[in-house]
């Protein structure tokens, strides 16, 4: 990839993308340019990664072949107003704004604009993210370009846009659910007398090890669960407590609530 990449917004996800793009050698640092209202943030990223930064969003578009909109959903309309006149068929626009549909993006830009929508998640900060990619009519080359960029920060799936809200509720919000589970299990260890640092280390390795076990064996999670669960043993008593507390239904409800909220954001 020899194109220049611009990012509008310099938050955590933008920094993750900069880190991934440079690590994967998709573009040299001097071919990556950012803009953000927070000048201190821009200077910090530039100092760490050697990227360029400019004062306005329009300058990002002028200097880039690929423009990544890494802004909050509530700011997307204002950003689009600023850059519409600068966008043409030679530019590829990629949006990571949660809940902002392709139709809304297209309605604010010319009909020839090449647009891709993606939904990454925060483990991208350590290059272990999960990103969903969708488009509406872009070329195979454009789609491959997006795949290469977001593969640099983790794994990807290419889906139809109709699935994006559910993906937002599951993997987009999922790191928060997992963090709460980690915190709660750690507290359980503390409740039973373990020092917090030891309890958290046990929880972290247990979760990461179980994920790896399921990933590598390709076994259904229920089979892994059954291997740990002896008749009348400790695990079945723990699982019984989880079922009484409605853990499954609660997690499913969390995904549903977050997905519905993503739908609501898309209608504003």
Properties at a glance:
268 residues; alpha/beta; eight-stranded mixed sheet; 8 strands; 54% helix
Could you explain the architecture of this structure?
It contains twelve helices and eight strands. With 268 residues, the chain is α/β, with parallel strands linked by helices. It has an eight-stranded mixed sheet, with helices on both faces. Helix 8 packs across helix 9. The protein starts with a strand and ends with a helix.
Give the topology string: H per helix, E per strand: EHEHEHEHEHEEHEHHHHHH
Estimated share of beta-strand residues = 5-15%
Count, helices:
12
The end-to-end distance, rounded to whole angstroms, is 36 Å
Instruction: Classify the helix fraction into a percent range.
Output: 40-55%
Radius of gyration over all CA atoms, rounded:
21 Å
Largest sheet: 8 strands, mixed
Structural class label: alpha/beta
Q: Please, what is the average pLDDT? A: 94
Pick out the low-confidence regions. none
Q: Order of strands side by side in the largest beta sheet?
A: 3-2-1-4-5-6-7-8
What's this model, at a glance?
With 268 residues, this protein is α/β, with parallel strands linked by helices. It is built from twelve helices and eight strands.
Present the secondary structure layout:
Layout: E1 5-8, H1 12-23, E2 32-35, H2 39-49, E3 52-53, H3 57-63, E4 66-69, H4 76-83, E5 92-95, H5 102-107, E6 114-119, E7 129-135, H6 140-151, E8 154-158, H7 164-172, H8 174-191, H9 196-217, H10 221-228, H11 234-244, H12 247-267
Parallel strand pairs: 1-2, 1-4, 2-3, 4-5, 5-6, 7-8
Antiparallel strand pairs: 6-7
């Amino acid at each position: 990839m020899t194109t220049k990449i611009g990012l509008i917004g310099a938050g955590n996800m933008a920094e993750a993308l900069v880190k991934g793009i440079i690590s994967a050698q998709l573009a040299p640092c001097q071919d990556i340019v950012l803009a953000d209202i927070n000048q201190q943030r821009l200077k910090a990223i530039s100092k760490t990664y050697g990227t360029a930064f400019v004062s306005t969003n329009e300058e990002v578009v002028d200097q880039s072949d690929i423009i990544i909109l890494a802004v909050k959903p509530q700011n997307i309309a204002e950003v689009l107003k600023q850059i519409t006149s600068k966008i043409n068929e030679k530019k590829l626009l990629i949006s990571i704004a949660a809940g902002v549909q392709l139709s809304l993006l297209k309605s604010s830009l010319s009909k020839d604009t090449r647009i891709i929508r993606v939904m990454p998640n925060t483990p991208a900060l350590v290059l272990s993210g999960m990103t969903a990619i969708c488009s509406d009519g872009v070329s195979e080359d454009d789609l491959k370009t997006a795949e290469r960029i977001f593969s640099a920060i983790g794994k990807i799936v290419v889906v139809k846009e109709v699935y994006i809200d559910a993906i937002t509720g599951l993997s987009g919000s999922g790191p928060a659910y997992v963090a709460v589970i980690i915190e709660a299990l750690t507290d359980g260890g503390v409740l039973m007398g373990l020092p917090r640092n030891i309890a958290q280390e046990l929880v972290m390795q247990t979760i990461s090890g179980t994920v790896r076990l399921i990933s590598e064996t390709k076994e259904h999670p229920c089979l892994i669960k059954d291997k740990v669960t002896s008749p009348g043993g400790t695990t079945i008593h723990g699982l019984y407590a989880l079922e009484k507390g409605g853990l499954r239904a609660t997690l499913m409800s969390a995904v549903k609530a977050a997905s519905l909220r993503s739908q609501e954001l898309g209608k504003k």
